[in-house]
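User: Quick sanity check before I run a bigger batch. Here is a single chain. Can you write out its predicted 3D structure?
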Amino acid sequence: MLITANDTANFAVAFGFTPGVSIGATTRLKVTGSALRSKMVDAASPIVYGYKDNLAIFASSPPVFGLTNMVGGGGGRRGATEERERPTGRGTADDPDLPQGRSPVEIPEEPHAEVWEATPLTSEQLRNPINVIPPAARPRVVLRYANAPELLVSGLLDGGTELAQHAAVIDSPYGEGHVVLFSNNPMWRAETKGSYFLVFNAILNFDSLDAGKKPADK
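Assistant: Done. Predicted structure follows.
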């Protein structure tokens, strides 16, 4: 088992130890040694044995995790600025947006996922699953950051919407082992005693971190 915390998570992600996990860029986020509220996502994980919801965690310039079910980052959520005004890609703005000689078909609704989740696989990705991460090998989100209005517990936070609801603690299978990623810093002097046991739990249960995990059906 490899445990990374805060900025050292960049090392694991950059060197490919955490398939399906990425770190996103931020523009306004400013967190300098603050206590932020977390929310329980997977209470069955051994990492949070003994914990309840709303744990305050210490963060300082935390990485913002993103998840996908595809190796190499494919299949993530679409950017907010992407335009899809003309699905066929043909004609001008004044022309009917219909394929020639074909009956019109409703555009399928895009898969939806929460901020801390990977976007569900599409039927096309399932038909050609060469880059799909097997269900048992996909990252498991244990804790996430709270919603923006309740995120700050104490300290300085600016641009918190860029961090809100993103995964805070991830258990990522790798080969026969695991990489545990902390966006927060669970052991910072004596200020974070409440989160010490997140690390101790991971160490004590290093060979059974899959306990309680419910892999996706596909």
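Confidence is low (pLDDT under 50) at residues 74-83.

User: Great, the batch can go ahead then.
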